[in-house]
Design goal:
The protein has 246 residues and is an all-alpha fold. It has nine helices and no strands.
């Protein structure tokens, strides 16, 4: 994204910028963030390699963040839960892609306060395509869920901005909630919004009061939306039956 931004700025300024080095999920390969040494296959086994190396690079002995095995373990546990819940059905591979994408979005948003369109938009379209065949909900509920999900946070954004003159959230949040609505239908939106708002408010207040975090520092909302979306994916039937009549 940053490389694209630089290229666009250079184009608008009428100057030429050297093409950026290739950067994607394949290139460059896994390497030490400090010494840049490529990792051997045996050093790149999820969780096991980090434990065997005692959390240090095999080449320069620099400490490697515990975040790596934590994310790997979280992904493994959630994947197992998804497989257990949906079993040998078409729902399982689709729900796994849904889960993995939400994990990626959670940590990207936590680091950068950005929810990339390259992830949120394909997630939305995949949800609609899956429900074209009623895999999770009927297609009419999925379409209404996508539209209502986007408009819900869009309306809150503009209400807050007109009232305070400030931006309360980013457009990525609208797209993520639209994607969640596309996967689980409009009936799931109320539990998702309430759960994410409740947890986000509690964490935000705790950071301000306990960690002395400034109120002007933005708190990403994407992780709470993603967590609420996963909860509703797993136990949404019970939550929906309770919320919708209310």
């Amino acid at each position: 994204m940053e490389a694209d931004w630089r290229a666009q700025c250079a184009e608008l300024a009428g100057s030429e910028e050297a093409p950026a080095a290739r950067y994607n999920l394949v290139v460059p390969g896994s390497h030490c963030p400090q010494c840049k040494t490529p990792l051997r296959a045996i050093d790149n086994i999820p969780i096991a390699s980090w434990l065997a190396l005692r959390g240090k690079c095999a080449h320069c002995a620099t400490r490697i963040s515990a975040r790596y095995p934590i994310v790997e373990a979280l992904t493994a546990v959630l994947s197992a839960i998804i497989a257990w819940k949906f079993g040998l059905t078409w729902q399982t591979p689709l729900a796994l892609v849904f889960t993995w994408t939400l994990i990626a979005l959670t940590f990207i948003d936590a680091d950068t306060t950005l929810l990339p369109d390259d992830l949120t938009l394909p997630l939305l379209w995949l949800g609609l395509l899956a429900n074209l065949y009623g895999v999770f909900v009927p297609i009419n509920e999925a379409v209404i869920g996508a539209v209502a999900g986007y408009l819900t946070l869009w309306s809150i954004y503009w209400l807050f901005k007109l009232t305070t003159g400030k931006e309360g959230m980013g457009y990525g949040d609208f797209k993520l909630l639209a994607a969640l609505g596309a996967w689980m239908g409009w009936k799931a939106l109320l539990p998702i919004v309430l759960l994410s708002s409740l947890v986000g408010a509690v964490v935000g207040i705790a950071l301000i009061v306990l960690a002395r975090r400034g109120r002007e520092i933005p708190i990403p909302f994407g992780p709470y939306l993603a967590a609420a979306g996963l909860i509703v994916m797993l136990v949404g039937d019970r939550l929906t039956r309770w919320f919708v009549p209310l």
